[in-house]
Amino acid sequence: MAVDLLLGLQWGDEGKGKIVDVLTKNYDIIARFQGGPNAGHTLEFDGIKHVLHTIPSGIFHKNAINIVGNGVVIDPVIFKKELEALQRFNIDIKSKLLISRKAHLILPTHRLLDAASEASKGKAKIGSTLKGIGPTYMDKTGRNGMRIGDLELDDWKEKYRSLANKHEAMIDYYNVDVQYDLAELEKDFFKSIASLKELTFIDSEEYLYQAQKKGKKILAEGAQGSLLDIDFGTYPYVTSSNTTAAGACTGLGVAPNQIGEVKGIFKAYATRVGSGPFPTELFDEDGETMGRVGNEFGATTGRARRCGWLDLVALKYAVQINGVTELMMMKADVLSGFEKLKICTAYNYKGEKITHLPYNIEAENVTPVYTEMDGWEEDLTQMGSTEEFPDSLQAYIDFLEKELEVPIKIVSVGPDRMQTIHR
Ligand code: IMP
Fold this sequence. Notes:
By secondary structure, the protein is an alpha/beta fold. 31% of the residues lie in helices and 22% in strands. The strands form 5 sheets. It has a 10-stranded mixed sheet with strand order 9-7-5-2-10-1-11-15-19-20, sandwiched between helices. Strands 14, 16, 17 and 18 form a 4-stranded mixed sheet that branches. A hairpin with a 2-residue loop joins strand 16 and strand 17 (352-354). Helix 2 (76-86) crosses helix 7 (182-196). The protein is globular and about 65 Å long. Bound molecules: inosinic acid (IMP). Inosinic acid is lined by residues 11-13, 38-40, 126-129, 131, 133-134, 223-224, 228, 237, 239-240, 273-274.
């Protein structure tokens, strides 16, 4: 039985949380495979708005098992807060939320190191979410990290102490102004570890293998987006994990030949938080309108997102490296009211018109070439089927499908579960 994937195809914030929540009724297991509390997956249903950071977005469905996979990094302090926010929903967390023993732990000093590293970079900072993501993955690949499974061993506190001491020396080395009271941070950390230890830890690759054998339907949930992938994103302005399809194999222990549908999500326009190149970024009224109407503020950091036109060069690249089999277009409603819409179909690069993503897409190298289409006036938020779509929206969808050569199966016209149109 195949494992389906759900991936963001831009710079994150495409609306993965909403779509996982919508799709969960078709799956037995939702498994998150990378990233950590840098993500903010927003779900809206029955008049409730809820933001998840580490916990998979299937948690609100009674029958679904939710797995935090080995590729994820967990901050026990944030995790505890997420669990507390879920208390009012009466979810049986112990049986519905399972955590891989091989997932890595974010320590308080990882967060401090993130801050020190960013401060030391000055203007060249990545614009990280300051959740300690980069330093935690550095310890993972440096083979120094602490894993969830370590918490079951007697000597985990010694391991913690030795790593935290090393981090403190590294923070000193950066020689920047990062104020902290580690004793205070540790109080919170140790308390949160105690809560974490009450949850169910599993060998998730074995669990998923057995589940597949039993014919269970599994959806692997990505975080961030393809253009933030550590290998294929706009390096160094990226996150520290593989956000692309292959990351689901390493982040869950699922074999490549078990991957079924690859569902790719994109917004009808583009946004980015943090630093880094963004060829179609708008600095005018149109960009301001997208930000305001689309409520483009980070769910984790509250930062305003940069907005711009849809970039098909970048989107095609994401479709290609992920092997996307079906697309979902989010926030179509935000584009209502624009007289003309632009879609970037090529770049002018070193005097040439190109349609692939070059090594460097900084503004000084790349100028977008746009195709202009008619916009639509109609409010889409109350529409229930594609028959109600204005002709120019239908033309926009047809154009994208033709260019991307993948069908758009879902068009989202608002944040609520109900505002989802299947095609
Ligand atoms: P980090 O993942 O916190 O190290 O941040 C690295 C870059 O990825 C920064 O530009 C962040 O703004 C961006 N980033 C990280 N997580 C998300 C996300 O969930 N949505 C959008 N951008 C993100």
